[in-house]
Amino acid sequence: MIPGKTPTNLITQPINRLLGETSxxxxxxxxxxxxxxxxxxxxxxxPQGIFLGFGLFAILSALFYRRPIPIQxxxxxxxxxIAQGLTPGMLQASAMLMGVILLILAFSGAITWLAKxxxxxxxxxxxxxxxxxxxWMGAKMMSEFWLLGVGAFILLFISKFLPLRYLAMPLVIAxxxxxxxxTQTNLATNFDIQAMTAPFQLAWPTSIEWTSAAILLxxxxxxxxxxxxVIATSVMAQEKFPEDAAKLTPKNxxxxxxxxxxxxxxxxxxxMCHGAGGLAVQYHFGARTYLAPLIFxxxxxxxxxxxxxxxxxxxSLIPMAILGSLLTTAGLQLAxxxxxxxxxxxxxxxxxxTAVTCLAINAAAGLAVGIILEQGRRTWAxxxxx
Length: 386
Hints:
InterPro entries: MOT1/MOT2 (IPR031563). Keywords: Membrane, Transmembrane, Transmembrane helix. By secondary structure, the protein is an all-alpha fold. It is built from 18 helices and 2 strands. It has helices at 7-25, 29-42, 47-65, 75-84, 88-108, 110-116, 120-142, 146-158, 168-183, 207-240, 250-264, 276-284, 291-305, 309-316, 320-335, 339-342, 345-360, 363-384, and strands at residues 72-73, 272-273. A two-stranded antiparallel sheet has the order 1-2. It is globular.
């Protein structure tokens, strides 16, 4: 027998780890499903191409990073495509353009230089702003049925302090689906199931779609991707897995996102990226290794290969209020930092200034304000010591 290990621990610990990885694998559904199902049901994009893209990206990320690095839709692009009814060609063009830009920034070293300008206070400020935005989006989704959404959020929150915390998230989702099926209400997604059967098809953007995508989709998305999906994700990943810090760099995250979008978008994949919020919530629910993204990616591949009316119906059973509770949990995990309590006064000032600017204008403006404040502090400290 292994010293310090009882027979019970030898059995329960691997089971708990597997439950944690499985729970963490699907912890980011609050961000993932509403956008993906919206593209499929409301815009009639090919579900096979979209799920195939997420599946391959997640599996390759699992094998390379060996950690629970999340895969998410690019939120600004997906939301604008859904809201404005844009074409599949524009979505593909925006994904490929983002891929090229990220690869240029990675191989030129520009993303590494930008990350070095980012102090921890600026990073925490950006995470605070994005976390608050996710919580606001989650609250709006929970408003579909407040009692269900708030109840699910409370259960997910207190589960952190319970022995079987890794079971909370799958149990909440399963209970929501059962409730939805039994009540036969239309509070879940309002998606037309028959519209979710678009066939797999290959296409190439037209010249007009390339131009429109660059202006309408890529420019608004770029700042959020650089801050949240690349730099903030790297900062958080290195904090949680310091032994792998050499691999979890902004340059590598820019490379993997760039390659995935450039190579998979022509086959119908959505614009995809990593994300600090996804990492926060996956870690919260127990994901620690490559198993979480491997499970998620394999599930996406199975959905792509077996897509049909039955799977579309099954996914649509997840109530919007439940997805909102997951998104709110992700936002809370991302927004909270000990620096908000024990940071020095100027550090807290930089955090709040960065966050407020991000919320009032955009992530790019918040990043600029944070860097300017930090550079001003360094310059003042340099002259004060002379």
